[in-house]
Amino acid sequence: MPRTADHDERRRQIAVAVRQLIAEHGLDAVTVARTAATAGISVGLVQHYFRTKDEMLLHAFQDVSARIRARAEERIRAGTEHRRPISAIMAEVMAEFLPLDDTRRTEFRVTRAFAGRALDAPALAEVDAETAHRLREDIARAVRNGQECGEVEPDLDPRPAAVRLTAVTEGLAAQLYRAPAGVHGIPAAELAATVVAAELAAVFTGECRQYTRPASP
């Protein structure tokens, strides 16, 4: 009997094929037959895992959202382990949602294609909303942590700050996707770093006491 890991790998293979089709040809190009051909497997095997196209699309959307999420969580884990300022960690987390390389440009195109379809597909809309919600929660938690250690003023409300930074991330991603070479002579990566740093500096105005003290031996 095939192992669970084999099933998971096959589902990932199908999700990658869907992502490739959307990135190269758009959402309307995705069919079960084309997905099977792109993945190098049979139509019957695709249908074994996904009974309908909508089920297949939902899984692909969840997969790409999970990939972005995993990178963001790794940034948080590594930054915390190395005792980096919270603002610096959040700059890296926000950058994972920006189309600054081929992988992230593909992910942006795919997620925006899904977001458009989500207007009429409640299951996709739920994934889209959950992705944005988790980013807001990450940022709000970072602001609260910043208040505890001195990077953020104690009277700042984390909730609107999180909404603002999430909106900046989403809007900046759209701008960078339209202008991959940059804007007004400023390279995209430099522009992204400047905008993100300026927005974070408006929230994280202090210095974290936890990271300024020498580590205990």
Describe the structure.
The chain is an all-alpha fold. It folds into two domains: 1-51, Arc Repressor Mutant, subunit A (Orthogonal Bundle), CATH 1.10.10; 52-212, Tetracycline Repressor, domain 2 (Orthogonal Bundle), CATH 1.10.357. The protein is 74% helix and 0% strand. The chain contains ten helices and no strands. The mean pLDDT is 91.
List the helices and strands and how they pair.
Blueprint: H1 4-25, H2 32-39, H3 43-49, H4 53-81, H5 86-95, H6 102-118, H7 122-149, H8 158-178, H9 188-201, H10 209-212
Helix-strand sequence: HHHHHHHHHH
Task: Please tell me how large the radius of gyration is.
Answer: 20 Å
Overall, the morphology is elongated
Helix share of residues? over 70%
Classify the fold: give the CATH topology of the largest domain: Tetracycline Repressor, domain 2
Uncertain ranges: none
Keywords:
single chain, Arc Repressor Mutant, subunit A, Tetracycline Repressor, domain 2, 2 domains, 10 helices
Produce a short descriptive summary.
The chain has 217 residues and is mainly α.
